[in-house]
Specification:
The complex is a heterodimer. By secondary structure, chain A is an all-alpha fold. Chain A has 14 helices and four strands. The model of chain A is unreliable at 355-373 (pLDDT under 50). The chains are: A mainly alpha, B alpha/beta.
Chain lengths: 373, 525
């Protein structure tokens, strides 16, 4: 396949999915008697500078969440527990940083490691249960999500400090906070400094998948568990390690906001990012670049949705429906495109190898004893 | 049931045949599954279809059940030429299929299982119940419509499957290896059921490779070998031994007259290897022994051929050697090291190459390019991996070498494995497994489903490697292959090694007898 053709095939699925999703949402709005033209006007408005920064911030966070989910997905492990893992990891990091046991940025670095460790261990529980007791990781991670929520609530009530009617962990010292980066000189909203983590995570994910033995084993197990086992992969160990890595990355999700804006873990901690990350990973087909695309689309939609009610009188909830439809459309579009690719490739191989011997040769034409005398 | 078992007199030869297949052919990319298949199945008879796995029986039955369309030939059902595009077409023509693996919901009753998907026929209530009872009594199935399937034994479950097919109005029933899951008493009961079904005018197509069973119940036997029908005989006219010969082919090549390369250095030593299945029947605590007390040695430069009808423990032996299956007892020594407790990866690192029986399941990542498939099974070794890192350049370079040296027909090493024909996939696997200086090659059916040209090349590579001191365990159902390549042939039967043959002097009759257990007294135990 030529480079152009290859690019067309790669882009075909997401574009097809977005078009189909747009049509379905328009139909939905028509059916509910909403202002379809208004919807498209709002959604295609060029965002303000302030909104652009907000979209970038939200994208980086969703990207980390998407990668966390994708690590598991690449070997068919459905880590639905990113939600619980990042909340617990974020809580642990906030609580640790608030204690200010270590000076300045050392405190920050160790807090980040604490978040990863706690996220990894929380995911590891599900990994061990799956590997050694055969418990579906879907069930156990959903349960662990619920437990994480209650556990955080209990710990904060017990040891957190009350400010007004909210309960938080202790605010971290100023020396451990991370600044923001101005993108536009006049915008009051700036980029979170720890948004850089998304770049590190993205590059790390690509390198891990494509250049390391562990990544190869992970992809092989996901592509064909039986072939992986025959090649010598210890699938139990892979399940546990993959869950640990996935949970470790999940631990990072809440940190950009915490270190650049809220400075503690409390009621302002954004929840639900773990579930959105699953959708983002699906939209990006678990690919490092694809997930970035997915995160951007989701962040853009959420940001523009804020204007829907004011400018077109449409409930912003329609955006959640849109996001869901996009994910479904992407899943279907990829299957269609993949079949097309497989057929194309087989046809191409057949064309190039037209000199292959014709089929129905008699069975006795060759014998193992013939030849090497 | 002492009624006639031998002739097909009750069918009457003048009636229209139930099924006539003429010139059926089916090709997949690079593989010919069937060609020039001609079968006439008389109405009201039990017709057996025998042949090795991979001979093309299952593709043929899929064609007859509408799962696959033939490329050539015609299908005539009860005098009418038909096109069967889906199983629904086949069912509408009165053709039903009982699969080897039961398709029943354990937590539903017999009634619910039977009516599931056929609610339109008699509803799901009393009418359906009455019909089920009627069929059950007519054929002596002894099934209670309200019993839960999970409480039923294997034989009863099979009768539920047959009842399902009859309930849907089938008059021609295909049974895919129905005895594979049954114990001997259940087999007898099944045969009684089949004879009753025949007496009521149904036509039965019985797929098997157990020759004594086939001879006991069938009115007519068609033998399939390498994708085509080679004979159609009446059971009274042939012995089991003659059937076995037909199945495996009797024109034997003269064995290789080249110098023997066998040395006296033992490379693989297996002692008392026993493998048990997981218990399949509810209530059972210990599984069947699928491999029992197997012991053998392979020397450097020796090819040990394992012959046998499939399902007699060959798969389990191979998987136990590669470390994919934990044996219950016994030891495996590679050279002078005890590898019994080693993982698959460690065994591969120690120099065990593995050409799996099912290359799609165990040998390839179908959607990955060839150069990534080069890494598979060699994840810890150069040239594809260095330390914890993939060596992309090294892997690509070595993939190119394999493609050239093993004549893999592909546009390039970035082509996905799926796009290649079976023969080229297999040549790539053989090339990969020969890389990294293996000391032992475990090859299961290395040329199955491979076109003739690729077959000869693979054979040649095995011979070359043997000359350089490789030890080879060759499991095959192809006698040509076994006799042409092996230095010693041993036969597996019911999980045990029976018989020890010299390929220079063995006759197909001897092998056939040992493989089927017919005439145990003659085989060298």
């Amino acid at each position: 396949m030529s480079v152009v053709r290859r690019a067309v095939v790669v882009l075909a699925a997401p574009v097809l999915a977005l078009v189909v999703a747009g049509l379905i949402v328009s139909g939905l709005l028509l059916a509910t008697g909403d202002d379809v033209a208004g919807f498209w006007r709002v959604m295609t408005t060029v965002p303000s500078e302030r909104s652009i920064v907000a979209i970038m911030n939200q994208s980086t966070i969703l990207y980390v969440s998407g990668v966390a989910a994708a690590i598991g997905f690449r070997m068919n492990l459905f880590n639905i527990g990113v939600e619980g893992q990042y909340r617990l990891g974020g809580f642990a990091a906030g609580a640790f940083a608030g204690q200010a046991w270590l000076p300045g940025y050392l405190n920050t670095v160790v807090a980040i490691l604490v978040a990863m460790l706690v996220g990894a261990l929380w995911a590891g529980i599900a990994g061990v249960l799956r590997a050694y007791r055969g418990v579906s990781e879907v069930i156990s991670t959903i349960m662990l999500n619920a437990i994480a929520g209650s556990l955080i609530g209990y710990l904060i009530k017990r040891w957190g400090e009350s400010t007004g009617n909210a309960t938080n962990t202790k605010a971290m010292p100023e020396g451990s906070r991370i600044g923001t980066v101005a993108v536009f000189p006049d915008s009051p909203v700036e980029l979170y400094g720890l948004g850089l983590l998304a770049v590190v995570v993205g590059v790390g994910f690509w390198v891990l998948l494509n250049r390391t033995r562990f990544g190869f084993d992970l992809r092989a197990t996901g592509a064909s568990e039986s072939a992986a086992v025959a090649s010598g992969v210890d699938t139990r160990r892979m399940i546990v390690v993959t869950m640990l890595v996935s949970g470790g990355v999940a631990g990072l999700i809440g940190l950009p906001v915490m270190f650049s804006q809220s400075y503690n873990y409390g009621s302002s901690f954004q929840t639900g990012l773990g579930f959105t990350g699953i959708a983002v990973a699906l939209l990006g087909r678990n690919h490092p670049v694809g997930i970035a695309f997915g995160a951007l689309v989701f962040a853009y939609l959420s940001q523009q949705a804020n204007l829907l009610n004011i400018q077109a009188g449409i409930s912003p909830d329609i955006i959640e429906a849109t996001q869901g439809i996009i994910v479904l459309a992407v899943v279907i579009a990829y299957v269609v495109v993949r079949r097309y690719r497989v057929r194309q490739e087989q046809a191409q191989v057949a064309r190039q190898l037209d000199d292959a011997p014709p089929g129905a040769a008699p069975a006795s034409a060759a014998t193992p004893a013939g030849g090497a005398r | 049931m002492s009624t006639s078992t031998g002739s097909q007199t009750q069918a009457g030869r003048t009636r229209t045949p139930a099924i006539e297949l003429r010139g059926i052919g089916k090709r997949f990319p690079g593989v010919i599954a069937n060609h020039d298949v001609d079968i006439t199945i008389e109405s009201g008879t039990i017709h057996a279809l025998v042949g090795e796995n991979g001979a093309g029986k299952s593709t043929l039955m899929k064609i007859l059940y509408g799962v696959q369309r033939p490329d050539d030939g015609t299908i005539t059902v009860e005098g009418q030429q038909v096109t069967l595009s889906t199983p629904a077409d086949a069912i509408a023509r009165g053709i039903g299929m009982v699969f080897q693996h039961f398709m029943l919901a354990d937590n539903l009753t017999v009634l619910e299982n039977v009516t599931l998907g056929a609610e339109k026929l008699h509803g799901i209530g009393d009418a359906a119940r009455a019909r089920i009872v009627e069929i059950s009594e007519q054929y002596g199935f002894g099934l209670d419509p309200d019993e839960l399937v999970e409480t039923l034994g294997v034989g009863e479950r099979q009768r539920v499957e047959i009842l399902k097919v009859l309930y849907r109005g089938a008059r021609i029933i295909i049974l895919d290896e129905p005895t594979a899951v049954l114990v001997p008493q259940e087999v007898d009961a099944l045969f009684d059921n089949l004879r009753l079904l025949r007496e009521e005018g149904n036509t039965l197509i019985f797929i098997s490779h157990k020759l004594d069973e086939v001879r006991a119940v069938a009115d007519r036997i068609t033998v399939i070998r390498r994708g085509t029908t080679v004979a159609s005989v009446a059971p009274a006219e042939v012995t089991s031994r003659q059937l076995a010969e037909l199945m495996v082919g009797s024109e034997l090549p003269s064995p290789s007259t080249g110098e023997s390369t066998v040395t006296d250095r033992v490379l693989l030593s297996v002692r008392d290897l026993t493998v048990r299945d997981a218990p399949t029947v509810p209530g059972q605590t210990v599984g069947r022994a699928v491999l029992a007390d197997v012991s053998f040695d392979i020397h450097a430069g020796e090819v040990l051929g394992i012959a046998g009808v499939e399902g007699n423990g060959q798969t389990e032996l191979v998987e136990a050697l590669v470390g994919m299956r934990r044996p219950e007892q016994g030891s495996v020594h590679l050279a002078d090291q005890d590898v019994s407790e080693w993982s698959t990866r460690r065994r591969r690192e120690a120099g065990i190459g593995y050409v799996p029986e099912d290359r799609h399941r165990h040998g390839l990542l179908l959607d990955s390019p060839l150069w990534e498939n080069r890494i598979l099974g060699h994840q810890t070794r150069p040239p594809s991996v260095r330390g914890g890192w993939l060596d992309v350049r090294g892997s690509r370079k070595d993939s190119t070498r394999i493609v050239e040296q093993y004549d893999v027909r592909t546009p390039g090493i970035d082509t996905t494995a799926r796009a290649l024909s079976g023969g080229n996939q297999q040549k790539f696997i053989v090339g990969r497994e020969m890389s990294g200086d293996p000391v032992l090659l475990v090859a299961a059916h290395p040329t199955r489903g491979v076109d003739v040209g690729a077959q000869a090349q693979i054979w040649q590579h095995v011979k070359d490697a043997r000359r350089e001191g490789l030890a080879v365990l060759l499991v095959s159902a192809d006698l040509d292959e076994l006799i042409g390549l092996s230095d010693t042939i041993r036969v597996m039967l019911r999980g045990r090694l029976v018989g020890d043959f010299d390929p220079q002097t063995v006759t197909p009759q001897e092998l056939g007898s040992a493989m089927t257990g017919a005439g145990d007294e003659e085989t060298a135990r």
